[in-house]
Amino acid sequence: MQGVTPDTGALDLDLFVLVNLVALTCIYLWAARRVSTSWPPGSILAFIGSMTALALAYLGPFGAWAHEALWAHMGQHLLVLMVAGPLFVLSSPVRLLFLNLGAVGRRRLIRILRSRVVSCLTNPYFGWSFFALTLLGTHTQWVMNWVLLDHDAMEFIIRPTYLVAAFIFYYPLIGCDLIARRPAPTLRLVSLLLMMIPETVLGIILHLAPIPLYWPYEVSASAYGLDPMADQKFAGALMWALAMVLDGMWVMVAAIEWWRDQERETNRLERRECRESISA
């Protein structure tokens, strides 16, 4: 890491992010407690893991480094898109909301989940396209140079967009949250595997680019005596390699869920055959 890490010793204690993370955690835990002991501990752990990943991405020294080094900025994206997002999906927030609503609220939520808009948003083709467009589009030179110099754009546009893109992509593919129509298991696995394409493309572009692509990082590198090309190449390698590892992990999660679904279906058929044989 020598030559690509700024020795700032700074802490990026973003109070807006901190307050929102604490508030979301309190609301989730309160809602989980309202549904008594029936709420799975694994879902609570997934939610806490999601909030922890966001805190690691946006608070403390890692958040501070992201203002000065591209590799840390890419690390933020990996934490948000491929750790915090899918863990949030595994915490089943929509199901928890459903259980905390009254009869009228539940009917309204079901209508929303069955609406054409939500059906479009939860379509794997849309989710993959939106995820890929978000990842590649925000790393064009114009967009990246703009958000690096505009704190509000980063705080209120880019960060929320990344969270939304991750949630929309992973929501129909992993976990058991409420959804009107879940895609076939093969489509879920293929969608997760194909996500390696835009991540690999972005990593290759950053790693093989002959010149620094984002001038704010070039300026900050000069200020700290760093090598901007080494920083950019390391950022590309990080996105290229680590993204594939994380992708593989979520593919395994989807494969395990598929196997469990098949096992439950097999057990159900066996019980039905047993009942039919007894009644005969």
Which key features would you list for this structure?
single chain; 280 residues; mainly alpha; 14 helices; globular
Written description of the protein model:
The chain is an all-alpha fold. The chain has one domain. The chain is built from 14 helices and no strands. The protein has helices at residues 15-34, 41-58, 60-65, 70-90, 93-100, 103-113, 116-121, 124-137, 141-149, 151-170, 185-194, 196-208, 215-224, 228-279. It starts with 14 loop residues before the first helix and ends with a helix.
List the helices and strands and how they pair.
Blueprint: H1 15-34, H2 41-58, H3 60-65, H4 70-90, H5 93-100, H6 103-113, H7 116-121, H8 124-137, H9 141-149, H10 151-170, H11 185-194, H12 196-208, H13 215-224, H14 228-279
Question: What's the order of the H and E elements?
Answer: HHHHHHHHHHHHHH
Which structural class fits the helix and strand makeup? mainly alpha
Q: How many strand segments?
A: 0
Number of helices: 14
**What distance lies between the first and last C-alpha atoms, to the nearest angstrom?**
72 Å
Low-confidence stretches: none
Largest sheet: none
Calculate Rg over CA atoms.
Answer: 22 Å
Gross geometry? globular
Q: How many separate domains make up the residues?
A: 1
Summarize the amount of helix as a percent range: over 70%
Describe this structure in a few short sentences:
With 280 residues, the chain is mainly α. Helices cover 78% and strands 0% of the residues.
